[in-house]
User: What shape does this take?
Amino acid sequence: MSFNLAVILSETAHSSPDRPVATFAEGQLTYRQLDQASDRLAGSLVAVGIKPGDPVALQLPNIPQFLISYFGILKAGGIVVPLNVMLKAPEVAFHLGDSGARLLITWEGILAEAGKGAEAAGLDQVYAVGHAGGPGAAMPFERLLGVSVPHFEMATRQPLDTAVIVYTSGTTGRPKGAELTHMQLYMNADIPGRLFDVQPDDIVITMLPLFHVFGLSSILNVCVRFGCTMSLIPRFSPAAVLTAIQRDRVTIFEGVPTMFADVLSYPDLDDYDVSSLRIAISGGASIPAPTLDAFEERFGLVILEGYGLTETASTTTFNVSAGERRAYSVGKPIWGTQTQVWDADGRPVPPGPENVGEIVTRGMHVMKGYWHNPEATAGAFTGGWLHTGDLGYFDEDGFLFIASRKKELIIRGGYNVYPSEIENVLHAHPAVAEAAVVGVPDERLGEEVMAVVILRPSVVLLEHELVSYCRERLAAYKCPRIFQFRAELPKNTLGKVLKDELVRAYGALS
Assistant: This one.
């Protein structure tokens, strides 16, 4: 049986050609237009040598060209490798090199970093949206739309073929590419879409980055599968979101907790008509109870929380409806999946908040594996169960609650930040003897990144110099906002840094 995920677009374009797939400040894009434009892009990719199974990197904000490129790559049989637009050149180079990307589609606004990253990775096929051409290796994106094809015959793919590689990281800090298959992504669009009863006339505020698995799987794929409309927000701000809600009569609000908090606290909130909203969906991190309560009261709707990972194509558990949801819970396992809580010996624990353990899951939502990394793949599973690294518990009715994180993962405003990656950058500075990075509580973002630094003897290093050093090598959301300079780090007898002490000490001082 063959199956290409891009069929969700061709089917919807056939049944609802004139319905907008996306609205934005400059206008709208219909399903027919998206289908035709992605056909042309697919034809161009084939013409420049992209073959089925070839990775193609896609580094764009939430603009129509992301949609065109995404489905064009899939139609050509390529593997989509979405990249964060905030990555710096060394990070871009790593992702391109590790994935083996044959081509990069990026954006003029980030071309300086993207171009340097591509050059370092030895990639010479770079196309940039908004780029006029001229000196340099990048070519205008429009060249990929120049092939005229009456109807592109999409490449044949198998259900378990890799469709998308989304990069994530573990405690080692080395990014790993989670392989998400055509059928897995289809099921992760079809099942959640049915759970929150998405309808063709729904309009979804699309402020979550589409290069992130939450936005890609839970918004883009869901919307195209069910034929509804995305209201695209290229860069999040409360004003931009509220303007779009009012302009487009948005019905579904999807975001991470920070977005809910920022919109709720926006001083001019009362100036906007948000009465069109019918439901809200939160993920990426547990939403603080005060934020959930205040948002629901102010907007007169229910927030449905879900839980998932990059490795599970976004959705693992979900609160299925306003009537059945359990407040402050992330819901129940979605159809076709199993989720359990295990103790340290790998045995399921009884329900109850006193029985916190590691969350493990298996089913059609779980990734194929880590791209070209069999050792990491083997380490992520036990008997077919994926270890999430998160701690939680079930209540007596089967609702899952997140307690904390087993890994040292920091979630800053919905973005995953991995301490060891930042520590590696800090340790490379010639003035730094030791460094430890931890997440500390932050009212708006959930967690903020703090770096505790030990300088080499007789060395003077100012904080702003270290800030500039990090900003040159790390995406902005990864850069520490809080620095502490100390004479030594607290350690146990084995020499391991006691990071809990660093967090407690910060709490005592704040």
About this structure: The two ends are 59 Å apart (CA to CA). The longest helix spans residues 31-47. The chain is about 30% helix and 25% strand. The mean pLDDT is 92.
